[in-house]
């Protein structure tokens, strides 16, 4: 169960399969939102969980950075679109955005 009380899908994978498919399992956990419990001889030994489930600050910082980059991209696109028919200097727009932020 997650902190919010909601259930998270979880599945078990034998260690031999986990070794062979580690990259796919990490992607499944990261993008699928579930957990993977790795077993050895039928006994749980380890678990793969998304960083967001652990409350890891790095994961939150990464997502915040992506959101900021998207906002900056939208701002730049809007500036470019306002200049219909004019030659566009993206570098000038980026410089303006940087000055506005500092």
Description:
The protein is an alpha+beta fold and 102 residues long. It has two domains: 10-54, YefM-like fold (3-Layer(aba) Sandwich); 67-101, no CATH class. It contains five helices and three strands. Strands 1-2-3 form a three-stranded mixed β-sheet. Strand 2 and strand 3 form a beta hairpin. The longest helix has 26 residues, at 57-82. The model is unreliable at 1-5 (pLDDT under 50).
Q: What is the global morphology?
A: elongated
How far apart are the termini? 42 Å
Could you name the ranges where pLDDT drops below 50 across 5 or more consecutive residues? 1-5
Provide the domain count. Answer: 2
Helix fraction, binned, reads 55-70%
**If you consult CATH, what is the topology of the largest domain?**
YefM-like fold
Kindly report the name of the CATH homologous superfamily of the largest domain.
YefM-like domain
CATH class of the largest domain: Alpha Beta
Mean pLDDT: 77
Q: What spatial order of strands do you see in the largest sheet?
A: 1-2-3
Radius of gyration, whole Å: 22 Å
Structural class: alpha+beta
Secondary structure: number of strands: 3
Number of helices: 5
Largest sheet: 3 strands, mixed
Which H/E pattern describes the elements?
A: EHHEEHHH
| Relative strand content | 15-25%
- Which CATH architecture of the largest domain is right? 3-Layer(aba) Sandwich
């Amino acid at each position: 169960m997650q902190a919010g009380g909601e259930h998270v899908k979880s599945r078990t994978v034998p260690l031999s399969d986990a070794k062979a498919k580690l990259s796919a399992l990490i992607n499944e956990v990261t993008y699928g939102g579930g957990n993977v419990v790795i077993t050895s001889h039928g006994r749980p030994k380890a678990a793969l969980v998304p960083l967001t489930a652990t409350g890891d600050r790095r994961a939150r910082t990464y997502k915040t950075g992506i959101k900021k980059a998207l906002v900056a991209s939208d701002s730049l696109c809007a500036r470019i679109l306002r200049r219909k028919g004019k030659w566009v200097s993206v570098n000038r727009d980026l410089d303006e955005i940087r000055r506005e932020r500092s």
